[in-house]
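User: Predict the structure for this protein chain, please.
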Amino acid sequence: MEKFDVHILGCGSAKPTQRHNPSAQLVNLREKLYLIDCGEGTQLQFQRARQSFSRLNHIFLSHLHGDHLFGLIGLLSTLSLSGRTSPMHLYAHAPLEGLLRPWLDFFCTGIHFEVVFHPLPEGNESQLVFADRSVQVWSIPLRHRVPSCGFLFRETPLLPHIRRDMIDFLQIPYYAINGIKQGEGWTTPEGRHYAHEELVIPADPPRSYAYCSDTSYLPANAPLLSGVDLLYHEATFGEDLAARAAETCHSTARQAALLAKEAGVKRLLIGHYSSRYSDEQCLLNEARQVFPDTLLANEGMTLQV
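Assistant: Here is the predicted structure, written as structure tokens:
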């Protein structure tokens, strides 16, 4: 099975402290890197994770709050100093371009690569924001104090594996293999036909990862998140502070777990803890009462999807 990993560079905090780095996650899918949010110090965490800047071409920002993007100018500056020439694509809400262009002009003078801005959709509908041969990335409508959205990474289905024994037995030529993978059968010189299903082994099912950053509890998102392999959801507060969570457009650990249960996801990862918690075990315990397969996000952890 090809790589599909999520690296936690910063697990987030409602008020960044020395205990946790601001939000930043790195998705490695088939050796292509996709950065989600870019809190302060992301470029340092990126290097500590021993990841290659050259494989990063797409950055997705959930919303325009500092703890999710203050590392962006540092990262872009580092890329410029490293001699990067290929474009960097930024997916963010529309005001970012007007805010960031002056910083790029001032702090990244002589930058040798293009920064391409892609405005994210607003509203209550999920939309496709990016696709390549490996993945589709869909927006997830969220509710926060500023326009915000999460991201749903859906792996592009792989073609089935052709059976090596059938290639040898039927002496199938190399030129025919790709057609068989795409659904064709094979007819021998003697006229016997072998159906596609006899010649291949089904590929592994496509995998999915959903990232829900700062948001109120939105049970309406359950159908969109149905069955995802791994869901990251903010859990800023415990249920005893549910009123505070609603006031600040955040979620409790229990609410994150309820959404995971309603959506039937396979695993839940919670993060973005309030700085009032010196030990997040209470949040984990609260979530596991509703959804047992829950993990706490911590810097440096890597999860296989």
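DSSP finds nine helices and 18 strands in the chain.
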